[in-house]
From TrEMBL:
Catalyzes the phosphorylation of the hydroxyl group of 4-methyl-5-beta-hydroxyethylthiazole (THZ). It comes from Anaerococcus martiniensis. Its EC number is 2.7.1.50. GO terms for molecular function: hydroxyethylthiazole kinase activity. This is Hydroxyethylthiazole kinase. The gene is thiM.
Length: 263
């Protein structure tokens, strides 16, 4: 059994600053989730301040949800700061399977900066591995689990990073160990920004313990909260209940409900 208790207790008892560069669509919910976990989100992307913000943070999350010239300039400066100040970088390559500029940008980041965690859905991880767009021809539903497991393992070794592939089952690999997490709710993909929120939780957990277990905790926290939030009501109720359940989550609930496989 994975031991999560120490990591979650550390998060509840101590506050880390998490520098988040994320789409405005997800920023409010992500900030509230991190606050509910006793963490301090700092959402900054202005070029002239991001070096300092990252330097004074415990982790940097770069989410590619929305991009622009000014945002990409700010991201590059934040990545430079993280590299020079040994701040762990979590990269969420949103939409990397859909456009050439996103794919080329993410491949550049992986090549030139010490990305500690690469987190994307099956299609995004597939595209990064094969270095080609996949949304029109290959979506998450058509990628075999065994194939994405092997891709995660190879990508991890290739870029010296922990790889997370989110889907019906979530896969984590550090190049050696592989965890398959099976909790979750079919309602999660129907709420905008839940994947982005997951990136924030991963960044927070990883800032306390740089391990595959910390990432498994983050994923399980969200997925089990989603299971508990699923009620016979509409999507608005589910979203509010999800935020409630995340804020109320503890190690006991996770250990009682977690469904996983270690390869």
């Amino acid at each position: 059994m994975i031991d999560f208790e120490n990591i979650l207790d550390l998060m509840r008892e101590n506050t880390h600053t998490i520098h988040v560069i994320v789409s405005p669509l997800a920023s409010n919910d992500m900030a509230n989730v991190l606050l509910s976990l006793n963490q301090a989100p700092f959402l900054a992307e202005y070029y002239n301040e991001v070096y300092e913000v990252t330097q004074n943070s415990h982790a940097l999350l770069v989410n590619m949800g929305t991009i622009s010239e000014s945002k990409l300039k700010g991201i590059k400066e934040a990545l430079k700061s993280a590299k020079e100040n040994n701040i762990p970088i979590i990269l969420d390559p949103v939409g990397v399977s859909a456009t050439k500029i996103r794919l080329e940008t993410c491949l550049y980041y992986l090549k030139n900066y010490p990305i500690k965690v690469l987190k994307g859905n099956y299609s995004e991880i597939y595209s990064i591995y094969h270095k080609k767009l996949s949304t029109r021809g290959v979506d998450s539903k058509s990628i075999e689990k065994e194939e994405i497991i092997n891709i995660c393992k190879d990508l991890s070794s290739m870029y010296n990073t922990i790889v997370v592939a989110s889907g019906k089952e979530d896969i984590i690999s550090d190049g050696k160990d592989i965890l398959i997490l099976k909790n979750g709710s079919p309602l999660l993909p129907k709420v905008t920004g839940t994947g982005c929120i997951l990136g924030g939780i991963i960044a927070a957990a990883y800032s306390f313990e740089n391990t595959i277990n910390a990432i498994a905790l983050a994923i399980s926290l969200l997925n089990i909260a989603a299971e508990l939030a699923q009620k016979e009501k509409g999507m608005a109720t589910f979203k509010i209940s999800l935020l409630d359940e995340i804020s109320l989550m503890d190690s006991k609930k996770i250990m009682e409900r977690i469904d996983y496989e270690r390869l």
